[in-house]
Amino acid sequence: MAEEVKLYGTWSSPFSRRIELALKLKGVPFEYIEEDLSNKSPELLKYNPVHKKIPVLVHNSKPIAESQVILEYIDEIWNNNPILPQDPYQRAMARFWGKFIDEKALATRMKANFAEGKERELVTEEFFQQMKFLENELNGKDFFGGETIGFVDIVAIVVAIWFPLTQEVLGVETFTEEKFPVLFKWIRKITEIDVVNECRPPREKHLAYVKARIEGLKSASK
Amino acid sequence: MAEEVKLLKTWSSPFGLRAFWILKLKGVQFDFIDEDLSNKSPLLLQSNPVYKKVPVLIHNGKPISESLVILEYVDETWKQNPLLPEDPYERARARFWAKFGDDKVLASIWNAFIKQGKEQEEAIGLAIETLKFLEEELKGKRFFGGEKIGLPDLALGWLANLIGVFEEVIGVKLIEKERFPLLSAWMQEFAEAPVIKESWPPHEKLVTKFRAMREPYVAAAAQPK
To answer: What residues of A are in contact with residue B106 (Cβ under 8 Å)?
Structure first.
C-alpha cells in the first residue's frame, strides 16, 4: 500500500517544525498542510478533537497528536537514522530532558519574558538554574544525542532558534553566550546542519511575527 | 551482578504510586523509601537534583525521575507483563492519553479542588468537559489499555481513589455514575484489580492531608480584596 504521510502544522511553531525535521532526517516523503489557527480546518478538528492543536501527523489516515508522542511514533515506524538511543536508561534520559524542555524551560522562559520588578529577578534566576542543568547535559558532547543529533536535540531546537530570537525582540540579556558558553557552542553546531536550516522559519518573517505577538501579549495584559 | 532496585516515593503521592504499581505488576523485587518532603533525604536530592521530587527509581545506582518516564523505563527493562502494546499506533495512543491525564485531567480537577465560589463552578465545568473525553475513550473497552491494564490506566489510576477524597473535602460530586457510567465502572475495576487493591493509601489519612492542603486556598479566598 502506498504510504500516506501528512503533517498539519504552522510555519512558526517549534512543535510543528520539530516534526518536519524528524521526517526529513529519516527521508520520509510527506505532504505538509499549513493551518491557519484562527480558522482551523475541518481536518484538523477531526484529527485532533481533544486539543484541536498542531502538529498532527496523519499516517495512512491514522492521526497522532502531541509532538513528543509523534517523534516517538516516527522513530518506531521508520528505523533508519534513529532519534532515540537503544539503551533503556539512555532513552529514559532523553525522555526526561525532552519533558524538561517543554514543561519547564519553555514555561519559565515565557514567565521571564513578561515578568516585572522583583518577580523578574526571581524568574530570571530560575531560568538560569534550569538552563544550566540543560547545559550540563551536553557534558563534552557535540550534541545531546552524542555525535549526531537525537531526540533531545530535535526538541531543543526551540532553545537554539526561538529563545535567541525572542531575546533579540525583547532586548534582554538572560540567554547569552557569556552565561551559557557550552549551550551556545551547541547552538552554533546544530544551526550549521543543512536539514536543520531547511526546517527553520525564515528569519525576517519570524522576527516580525514574534515582535507582533509580543506586542499583542503586552497590550493584552495591560 | 545482583539487581538493585530502589523506589523513592511518599505514602500519599499518586505519582509514586504509579511506579510502585508497575514494579509490583511485573513482579520486580524492589525496596522503597517513603520520603518526608519537608525533610528530603540526601539520596533524593542527589538522585533528582533538577526537580528534587518523588518518585525516583534507582536501578543499579542509576536514577530515573518523572513518573511517566519511569513507567516506560520499567516496561522496557522488565519485559514480562508488558504495559505498552506492540503496535506503534496503539503505543502512540497510549502515550497520548497518559499525557492527557497529567496535562489536562489532573490540572482541571486540582483547580476544581482549590478554587472557591464562582471560580470553582467554572473549574468544575471545565473538569467535567475534560472527563468527557475519558468517558468517550473507554467506549468498548474494559481498561484504557484494552482488555488489560496499560500505561494510561496507571497514569490515570489516581482517579480511582483520589476523586473520592477530593469529592469528600469539597462536598461536590465530580464523577457522577449517571453522567460517567464507563469511567465509574473503570474506576471500580481498577481499584479492585490485583496488586492495585493492596496498595491504596488509607482513605481517612488522605482526606486529612488534602483538607489541610486546601486550607490556604480557602483562607486566601476569604480575604477581603
So the answer is: none
| B64 to A91: CB separation less than 8 angstroms, yes or no | no
Count of domains in chain A?
2
A52 CB neighbours in chain B (<8 A) are none
Domain that holds residue A59: 5-77
Of A32, A51, A77, the domain-final residue: A77
ipTM of predicted complex = 0.96
With CA atoms as reference, report the closest residue to A131 among A79, A85, A183, A198.
A183
Residues A29 and A104 in one domain: no
Q: Is A65 on the interface with B (CB under 8 A)?
A: yes
Residues of B in contact with A66 (CB under 8 A): 95-96, 99
Is A83 part of a structural domain of the chain? no
Q: Is residue A194 part of a domain?
A: yes
For every residue of B75-128, DSSP letters joined together read HHHS-SS-SS-SSHHHHHHHHHHHHHIIIIIIHHHHHHHH--HHHHHHHHHHHH
| Whole-Å CA distances, B56 to B38, B39, B153 | 17, 16, 20
pTM assigned to the model: 0.96
Q: Is A22 within a domain?
A: yes
pLDDT in tens, A10-47: 999 999 999 999 999 999 999 999 999 999 999 999 99
**CATH number of residue A70's parent domain:** 3.40.30.10
